[in-house]
Amino acid sequence: MMENPSPTTSRPVLPLPPPLPSKDESPPENIRPMTLRHLQNLPLPLRIARTLCSELQRPSTPAEHIRLITIGPSHYCEKARWGLDLSGAVYTEDAHPPVLSAFETLMATGGSSSSAPVAMYRGTAITDSTDILVRCCPFLYPPEVSDAARSWEKYFDAALGPSVRLFNYHHYLTPRYSPALTEMATAHTSRIEAEIYTATADTVGAGIRRAMSIDASSAERSERAIRSVFGVVS
Question: What phi and psi, each to the nearest 5 degrees, are found at residue 92?
Fold first, then answer.
């Protein structure tokens, strides 16, 4: 029979991650954020889309209820969703297709963020997946490993997250996989947004490629960065 550990037995310590990559080695943060100014200068088709989406969707949630604004193809949104599911928090997911989601996030944050996820809680917009977990899921950061856990989170956000996003979009925005992307992007969204996204998927896809500087070269760079991080944690 195993003996109980003595009170002086030290607990396992979570190691710290390696240093963040230098600026030259880091994958580019490949999102050019939209601003409220952009909403005022949208091309006519997007102005119509914004009006339809805004007028036909008026989400309202109680003050103690969390509204989580998301897009389907996003590991950052999945991270926030995963944490809220673990916490047992009462929340409603407000899903939107990519690009169209910016109409909601910009209005919800007063123009400070066009990206998802955004959590609305007690009248406050929480605009980063890590901040959502820290605010709503503090149990994920026990005091004895909190600093190391946050360091690893920062490392993955900088060294892995942008590269995964670019690499995935590079493949999803091809004729072979674009139907799967459309299905993922429109899942659980409103019917009007699903129709608009589906009708404009090729145009939206071209815009995503331009905004994220996606091409074969950047995808290859991103794959190398992903494999490098896997080498660190394996």
Answer: -120, 130
Q: Distance (Å, rounded) from C-alpha 64 to C-alpha 27? A: 38
Structural tokens at position 158: 């900088």
Tens digit of each residue's pLDDT (9 = 90 or more) over 53-68: 555 555 555 556 899 9
| Residue 50: pLDDT over 60 | no
Handedness of CA 41, 44, 46, 51 (dihedral sign): positive
Q: How confident is the model at residue 98 (pLDDT cuts 50, 70, 90)?
A: very high
Taking each helix axis from N to C terminus, what angle separates 161-172 and 216-233, rounded to the nearest 10 degrees?
130
Inter-residue contact 190 to 57 (CB < 8 Å): yes
Instruction: Put the strands of the sheet holding 91-96 in their side by side order.
Output: 91-96, 66-71, 118-121, 124-126
For residue 143, what are its two tokens?
A: 């005091």
